[in-house]
Design a protein that fits this description.
Order of helices and strands: EHEHEHHEHEEHEEHEEHEHH
Distance between the termini: 53 Å
Shape: globular
Structural class: alpha/beta
Number of helices: 10
Radius of gyration: 20 Å
Length: about 325
Amino acid sequence: MGTDFWANKRVVVTGGHGFLGSFVAEKLRERGASELFLPRSRDFDLRSSADVERLFTETRPDVLIHLAAVVGGIGANRRHPGRYFYENAIMGLQIIESARRHQLAKLVCLGTVCSYPKFTPVPFREDDLWNGYPEETNAPYGLAKKMLLTQLQSYRNEYGFPGIYLVPVNLYGPRDNFDLESSHVIPALVRKCVEARDSRASKIVVWGTGQATREFLYVEDAAEAIVLAAEEYDKPDPVNLGSGEEISIRDLVAQVKDLVGFTGSIEWDHTQPDGQPRRRLDTTRAQNEFGWSARTPIREGLEKTMAWFVENHEPMARAV
């Protein structure tokens, strides 16, 4: 399906070769974006103001979708709080400022559910973003991304700059990062269970107690939301993107274990943190403002994620 919105527009997607960005790029092409530029980090270091300025002068975008980020699970956030704060903040700050100076027609900036306060009432509403401090293990990342909302709102007030800000929950799906050192919970569980099944291991170890709850959004649903928001939404208020399904980590582990066919046991490492106690977003605003709601149930999304991983990963070497 095409749309006139993208006709004759030059579009840049930072992070366009990444997990979410690759799906966003596909959606854009489907909807008629023919002049699409997906910068690679080796060619444009978005931490460098000179490279950011060169990106704008060489590509001359009308629309920019800023997805590039340094991300990871709880372990990666605990190991690299300084890096996650600085690099996410500096990339966004410079991109938004350059976009303003180059008078872009539209900028879409992706935030994170990690920006919400640790004890936000469930479901999380956009008006609660500032009502407390984020959960400690990912606060530097969450705060860095939330500063970009402030920048966009202040630029809209002072310069009339048309930037919008979207707040997705944890994403998952095919092409995700399955590196156990830096992955989020679903790809980590899928990999652990597949490799344990294939090696006939007796158990896997999972962090925390399993009592925390999460909401997960399938990557293709998120990509659809981002493209629709670019076309239809132009207000200063942040917009949540979620599935509406809340699931405990314990139940999630059981589903992945069942789908993969791993018959061993689960050992819960209570010395490791659960992270934020609960997460589920109120997505009323996305439905009202640009007619979006998620379409992929968690079970279906897990099946697709597992199938992709099994097809694309290299089986671990079996011990002799």
